[in-house]
Design goal:
The protein has 52 residues and is an all-alpha fold. The chain has one domain. α1 crosses α2. The longest helix is centred in the middle third of the chain and has 24 residues.
Length: 52
């Protein structure tokens, strides 16, 4: 790998280090939103058990 053309991962890591707390906040919000979405889909798609 050359320094003239760094990979996307290297650029993303450098950007995270430079932005610091804001990047971590965005990552946390994205993670919470994703977990909430998955939970909602699981709740809406739950099987209806007889007698429950």
């Amino acid at each position: 790998m050359t320094d003239e053309n760094p990979s996307f991962t290297k650029l993303a890591m450098r950007n995270m280090v430079r932005k610091g707390k804001l990047s971590l906040t965005h990552f946390g919000l994205t993670a919470l939103g994703f977990l909430g979405f998955i939970t909602l889909v699981a709740w809406l798609g739950r099987p209806q058990l007889p007698g429950g």
